[in-house]
Amino acid sequence: MASPAAGPAWSTSPRLRTSTTAATSARPSSAPPARRCPRRRCSPTTSRVEPRRPGPVCRRSHRSHREPPQRCPQSRTIERSGKISSWQAPLLSLVLACTLSTSAPTSLLANPRIVDLNTTPEPVRDLVRYEVEGVELLGEFLFAATDETHGAELWISDGTVAGTSLFADLNPGPASSSPRDFLQVGEQVFFVATSHEHGREIWSTLLASTSPTMVLDLAPGSASSEPRDLRWDGAAIYFSAETPESGRELWRWDGMSVTTPDLVDGAGGSDPEELVADPSGGVFFVAETPETGRELFRSDGTPGGTLLVGDLLDGPGSSDPTELVWI
């Protein structure tokens, strides 16, 4: 059989023909017309054949390809009428299944939820559970939670739906008191919360009472001292708080009196953090002074009992200790 001439000029006829006149004329007149190659189709505006996809070159013998020649490639596409072919239906089902599963992330996670306090759905932001802050006391859990009616307030639960309820609405209405920094001392719980009258200060409650009370107001009136990091050493509560006179400093409260070592004079403050209570009394913490930089200190809550543990970086440079743990 003669090889096709170089540079074929393909016909625009619906039937696929070779470019060699000799080969065409040599074909007996009784020969059946060449079948259209299912892997190529002619462009209506050009004399070249546009390949649908890579595959074996179509020859006059019409040898079989990877797919049967009589099968039309267009039968495997989605028609303009919206029909879906048999091979696309499983893929579409898989796409729909993935879409539905991502719209309901709770089905992907083991959900230990006891009760849904906030029933209004929100857009999915991530699949990580929110951390609930609270404290267990006498078989019940006192914690902070948010709903549409009360905002972020104090709730209590015994682990059942019927036993979960609002414990106290310290900032009435949808405004939030945002309880944080829970500290259990015996059967009493101390925490930090916000109210219109007192700002953000330290509160206390007993499970037998449904009326928490503010126990320490360092910034009188509606101003806030913003206490945080409450710690108990067996005799007193240590925490950091901010006042206009001293800035943010370490404070000690024994239920009767409150003191501060005031490491930095004036309103600058030493900005104490990383508080760790010493069971034998006092607290370790990280603070900053102009002379030492940010280093590790220990205090019993008095100016004379507050000492630099070690200046790891001499002078005003800071070693900036973090992640303190009592062992």
Structure description:
The protein is mostly beta strands. It has a domain at 227-326. The protein has 2 helices and 18 strands. The protein has helices spanning 21-25, 88-102; strands at residues 40-42, 49-51, 134-137, 140-147, 151-157, 164-168, 180-185, 188-195, 199-206, 213-216, 228-232, 237-243, 247-253, 258-259, 273-277, 283-289, 293-299, 307-310. The strands form 5 sheets. Strands 3-4-5-6 form a 4-stranded antiparallel beta sheet, with no helix packed on it. A 4-stranded antiparallel beta sheet has the order 7-8-9-10, with no helix packed on it. Strand 3 and strand 4 form a beta hairpin. The protein is elongated, with a radius of gyration of 39 Å.
Structural class category: mainly beta
Please bin the fraction of helical residues. Answer: under 10%
- Strand residues, percent: 25-35%
Morphology: elongated
Key words describing this protein structure:
mainly beta; single chain; 6% helix; four-stranded antiparallel beta sheet; 327 residues; disordered N terminus; 18 strands
